[in-house]
Amino acid sequence: MSDSCGYAEARRVAIFGGTHGNEMSGVALVSVWTRDDREIRRSRVRTEPFLCNPRAVEKCARYIDTDLNRAFTPENLSMPGGEELPYEVRRAKEINQIFGPKGSPDAYDVIFDLHNTTSNMGSTLILESATDHFNLQMVHYIKKAMAPESCMVLLTEHPQLKYSTTRSVAKHPVGLEVGPQPQGVLRSNIFESMRRIVKHALDFIEMFNGGVEFPACRVEVFRVHERVDYPRDTNGNISAMVHPHLQDCDWEPLNPGDPMFQTFDGSTIAYQGAGPVYPTFINEAAYYEKHQAFVTTFRETLAVSAIRKSTK
Ligand SMILES: [Zn+2]
Q1: Over 50: is that where the pLDDT of 1 sits?
Q2: Which of 26, 131, 132, 156 is the most buried (most CB within 10 A)?
Q3: Which of 48, 177, 220, 284 does the annotation list as catalytic?
Q4: Distance in Å, CA 276 to ligand 1 centroid
Q5: pTM for the full predicted model
Q6: Which sites bind N-acetyl-L-aspartate (predicted)?
Q7: Is 23 annotated as a binding residue?
């Protein structure tokens, strides 16, 4: 018992939808729960649904001026000024005021940020830290509760790649990424998977706050390695597509020599890395503008400490 980590009770939780205005499951769930929050109410935790980018939701666009989910940089959050700033920078500052400030003791305990992907990723939980044992225990709980439906864990902790996400305002940020679902479309199966994940997550927090100890465990994660762009011609235009053997194969190993891209005249470009990687966000619609065809990950198993509520 002595080697378990104590974490403070998670008393304040927010559920964010519409960080990207055209990812409809989160937009719809937040709207449902704003009208009637009985489903997300628990006795030991206060949970608030919140629509992050209402102007983008109204337009059914990812964003108005800039990607809100990359806007939570220290520079943006400390920037003086008002109306002249890009809409999402103003919005980031507002969200940071309400749910943060980021990195401070006043910040919300947990933020769940609901996203959809056009990639065939299924249900995915996104964590930003390999040392947050509260979050690791929570995803372990969710994975077990979701079985036999699979629920993958993407770990975005990386020495160079910094995401500055909307949820990063919280002490324990958790991203939900469920797909495949086209932008601007609601699919009932995707909606229901997302709803179940949130239910299990809130059940976990309720149990934790009630004093339940969670024993040490192991959890499989996919750690972000690098972003891979589409092949391009000398003018910078895309010259090949994701290969049919890779399309929809998120989380499956890509080995050296495996087909990766297919040029417009039908020839194959193979993966040339030193060993297997696990691609995900394959052919995500929103990442064309980021010059990203997919992201590679390494699969690893993390040892998770036992956790319990700290007594003070
Ligand atoms: Zn998104």
Answers
A1: no
A2: 26
A3: 177
A4: 27
A5: 0.96
A6: 62, 177, 287
A7: yes
Predicted local confidence at residue 279, as pLDDT: 98
Residue 83: predicted pLDDT: 85
Cα(24) to centroid of ligand 1, in Å?
10
User: Is the omega angle on the peptide bond into residue 80 within 30 degrees of 0, that is, cis?
Assistant: no
pLDDT digits (tens, 9 = 90+) for 135-190: 999 999 999 999 999 999 999 998 777 789 999 999 999 999 999 999 999 999 99
177 is in an annotated binding site: yes
Residues with CB under 5 A from ligand 1 (ion): 20, 23, 115
177 a catalytic residue = yes
